[in-house]
Design goal:
422 residues; alpha/beta; FAD/NAD(P)-binding domain; Polyamine Oxidase, Chain A, domain 2; 7-stranded mixed β-sheet; 5-stranded parallel β-sheet; 20 strands
């Protein structure tokens, strides 16, 4: 990998951009990776928080053992050991409304015999309740989850509402049934082996970002942080130049450029580009309070303000998806409500410890049928310009898995365009 194919540009060093840069480097390109921010990682970044006195992630990202792109990416960059998780698919839940506790525990294989074991399924449900999930696998474009399956009853109230709002970052009943079906197809439908929850260790940056940057540099890529792209110059058929804040860079014919920037940045750079234009917030709370001994790494919350409580060695954290309604709340009052969810899971004093809220106002696109239809393909109408990002047409909602796949897809399009041009 010495750059035998010549130069290539990737703009944006989030996970989609890192994935694209790695794929192009593997294919023999000499990649220049440019990023507007002073650090790589995009929304999967880590930083030292002075209030807590520790390094935290901007968000609590849960991946699953069946996320094939995640595991392939980590294997490539030598970071497969930086995901921690259970040897089984076990998801403890607490209903804060009545204190009920249970564990969702799918069996390892795809034949779902776990549905016939009361101790493994959601309380109050029967095996037949789960058959409705098969309808999501056949859902067509334009339909919401609420159009396809019931949005009331024990299964919805105690599992699916939580599951889909977390996966789609969209109010569950309004979410795209097709995207929900894709999640089910790659998780529950494959059995517990594909559903084991895994968390980056010790941080997102240490698992997904820093090893990727080191790999790229070791393989001849040039990484330029703090380099904002202001404009593109395009002819009728190809990209002509990249206008960065630090100067213009001419692009020779046949040199691929992958834009791996947020949708709202891409739409200002690429003429007539249609992208998702509605987004939802995610709120993460971090509490300087170590969890009790034996606490599960992640616990689902039903009926609370948060959807998940995470237990890290040095702190406890919560995540709330589709959290737009919380943005106007007083920060301390919101932290107090989220801490109450933590106490409901782990017990202990109700006194609010040192805390921090991390809010992403435009965390992901709204995963509704209408917004899903606005997602562009990786290939554009210009010969050497390609798009990457979890907001492109990946077939998945905006997830780490989708972002990594999008980078690979954009690189594959670039390679195919090169082959066709020969």
């Amino acid at each position: 990998m010495t750059g035998g194919r010549g130069p290539a540009h990737v703009v944006g060093a989030g996970l989609a951009g890192l994935s694209a840069a790695i794929a192009l480097t593997e294919a023999g390109y000499r990649v220049t990776l440019s990023e507007a921010a002073r650090q790589a990682g995009g929304r999967c970044r880590s930083y030292h928080d002075p209030k807590l006195g520790m390094t935290i992630d901007n968000g609590n990202h849960l991946v699953l053992s069946g996320n094939r792109a995640v595991h392939a990416y980590l294997e490539t960059i030598g970071a497969s050991d930086r995901l921690a998780g259970s040897s089984e698919a076990r998801f403890p839940y607490v209903d804060v409304r009545d204190g009920a506790r249970w564990v969702l525990h799918p069996n390892a294989g795809p034949l779902p015999w776990w549905l016939f074991a009361k101790t493994r399924r959601v309380p109050g449900t029967t095996p037949s309740d789960y058959l409705g999930l098969a309808r999501l696998l056949r859902a067509t474009a334009g339909r919401t989850i609420g159009d396809v399956i019931p949005t009331r009853g024990p299964l919805w109230d105690r599992l699916l509402d939580n599951f889909f709002v977390s996966a789609l970052n969209t109010p569950a009943a309004e979410g795209s049934a097709q995207l929900a079906g894709a999640i089910v197809r790659e998780t529950l439908a494959k059995g517990g082996r594909a559903c084991r929850p895994m968390i980056a260790e010790p941080t997102l940056a240490a698992a997904f970002v820093d090893p990727a940057l080191a790999w790229l540099e070791a393989h001849g890529a040039t990484i330029r942080l703090g380099r904002r792209l202001r404009a593109l110059a395009l002819s009728d058929t190809r990209i002509v130049s990249l206008d960065f804040a630090d100067g213009r860079e001419e692009i020779a014919p046949g040199v691929p450029t992958i834009l791996a920037v947020p949708a709202w940045v891409a739409v200002d750079l690429v003429p007539d580009l249609v992208v998702p234009d509605q987004h939802h917030a995610i709120v993460n709370a971090h509490f300087l309070s170590p969890p009790p001994a034996g606490a599960a790494p992640v616990t689902g919350i039903i009926g609370g303000t948060a959807e998940w409580v995470f237990a890290f060695p040095d702190r406890r954290s919560t995540t709330t998806s589709a959290a737009d309604a919380l943005l106007a709340d007083d920060r301390e009052a919101l932290a107090t409500r989220l801490w109450a969810d933590v106490v409901a899971v782990h017990g202990g004093p109700k006194t609010l410890p040192v805390w921090q809220l991390v809010i992403e106002k435009r965390a992901t696109f709204a995963a509704t049928p209408e917004q899903d239809l606005r997602r562009p393909c990786a290939k554009t109408r210009w010969d050497d310009l390609f798009l990457a990002g979890d907001w492109t047409k990946t077939g998945l909602p905006a997830t780490i898995e989708g972002a990594l796949r999008s980078g690979r897809a954009a690189a594959a399009c670039a390679l195919e365009a090169k082959r066709v041009a020969r």
